[in-house]
Amino acid sequence: MSKQNRKHLVLLDLLEHCQKNNNFTFNNNLIKEICRKYNIRNQFDVTKLDSADKLPQFFKYKDICLLHLGNGNHKFIKGINKLYHKFEHIQKSVRWEYKKSLLNQYNDSESNALSIANNQRILHDFLFGKDLEFENIDISKRPKTYFPHRTKTTLEYYFETEKIIAKNQQIEIDLTIEFNGTIGIFEAKNGSPNNFNIYQIYHPFLYYHNSNLPIKEIICVYLVWQKDKQKIKLWAYTFDNPLRLDSIKFIKSKEYILIRK
Description:
Number of domains: 2
Shape: globular
Helix content: 25-40%
Oligomer: single chain
Strand content: 35-45%
Number of strands: 14
Largest sheet: 7 strands, mixed
Number of helices: 7
């Protein structure tokens, strides 16, 4: 049996347990207990569902998904489209000439895709609407790139009518770019996903929103790398109400077709 199928069995057992107890909130201890039954060592991987496609078929049929409450707690809720956002149609497609460097596409990781897009100034073009000639700009005035990192903090926000206090919430940020007070936060995936879990970009958004830094604007960018087609697709979002996970707002989208010089 594949690991994915075993993860689905854990989720189905969790749902059955919650239904029997008429309590749809549960914690990591219960997940760990059920994981042992299916020989899954990493219980945290079970609840990492960054696309609705990863939900068990029964969940899709019943329109059930998983809301993370923080501090090791989770809750089953109705309404997959409340937590997962479908990518909008690409508004613009451009051919982007570039000269392949030594390590470009050396591996298939999402970080490599971000590196290509960053080194080729695609991220800057998408965020700021122009390809900056860095050689002629003082280094203090150039966009700054901050590499992947993880951090833990407490986040307080709302989802519908429920207030969520996520203590010691682990936040993963694939890449950050700052320029003139605008923060660009990047989440990257390979392949052809058609939706994503909103918390992937909301938690980093709220992390920077809660800082005391003089930030003018926070833009969350989801990047999809299709290596077989040599395409980089980007979607930009923000949140109308910074303290509401369900206030996501689409800004723009663009596709870059890489053409070797």
